[in-house]
Amino acid sequence: MTSSGSVGVVSPQTAHFAEPLTLKSGAVLPAYDLVYETYGTLNAQRDNAVLVCHALSGSHHVAGTYAGKPKSVGWWDNLVGPGKPLDTTKFFVIGVNNLGGCYGSTGPTSINPATGKPWGADFPFVTVEDWVAAQARLADLLGIERFAAVVGGSLGGMQALEWTLAFPDRVRHAAIIAAAPKLSAQNIAFNEVARQAIKSDPQFHGGHYYEHGVVPVNGLKLARMVGHITYLSDDAMGEKFGRKLRHGEHKYHWDVEFEIESYLRYQGDKFAGYFDANTYLLATKALDYFDPAFDYDGDLAAALARAKADFFVASFSTDWRFSPERSRELVFALIQNGLKVSYAELESTAGHDSFLLDDPQYHAVLRAWFDGIGV
């Protein structure tokens, strides 16, 4: 580690699991790999491990940089490192690329042993529950019986919640940030529009575009543009772009005129250049399916009765995709079960993306919570 607050140069590792994994859908993965990174040192008692679960487009690369690639900064590097809120001089932090991902873990781009070709659209549906089951096997491999904390934002927060339900004796604390116990109909609708943008791209080829040597770039670009709109608040867009014109005047054409158009196209192009379309489909479906109360006639409090962890829940004032009301719904259900819950509703102009930012108030609250976790 360096003294600058960064974990420094890091390297991903790969764990292979030969034992089949039965998924919630009933499908079976005969074997699979999980790519992960670790930061800090696991103590002698093995009780200082913190699992960081990533959101839809995230990965195992949570903090630090890769050798020779100074711009390859981890997606939550502002939070994780020596002296940072999630302090790697105190905690052993683990980031994992989920099954179905496109950063090295087994997914649609991997070879299907039954065909010798990439899985493509034949890769089975994966759920939050499946991800957590696979993460638990990785924890077994690393000799971690119980996590000091499981932490995540957005879809990562759903995984943190599922950990407390599937493995209640293996989690002491859980941080659920900018998340919800299930998606609203509006959220599912946004995900479906994004999926249809991908699936209607002529280069999609029913999900087997690898075999054709193409990528459904336009569909993936549109999906990201739709998603990105929901990650930002109206205030953030107005403050950053407003109605600014790229050329200072109306040109009356279909090319970029407003700066917000330029920004969305840039984000879409960048995303389509590195992310896999089939992974995007799988991850949005995993979001849609997650609903712990489904088997409890919609009774969230009954669904959460299994949990034993102490909870930290955080929401952001301008997050309209996972609004504070949804976090409070979770908090109330946890309190009904007599669980210890800390809740922070933070002022922010940045919308859903707030959980990724280096906001002083947000980080101060997280630092205080992590400082309160004894190891």
Automatic annotation (TrEMBL):
UniProt keyword terms in alphabetical order: Acyltransferase, Amino-acid biosynthesis, Cytoplasm, Methionine biosynthesis, Transferase
Any one GO molecular-function label of the UniProt entry: homoserine O-succinyltransferase activity
Pfam families: Abhydrolase_1
Catalytic activity: L-homoserine + succinyl-CoA = O-succinyl-L-homoserine + CoA
Active site: S154 (nucleophile), D319, H352
Enzyme Commission code: 2.3.1.46
Important for acyl-CoA specificity (site feature) positions: R321
Domain AB hydrolase-1 stretches: 48-357
Primary location group: cytoplasm
Any one Gene Ontology cellular component term annotated for this protein: cytoplasm
Subunit record text: Homodimer.
Protein's recorded name: Homoserine O-succinyltransferase
Organism: Niveibacterium umoris
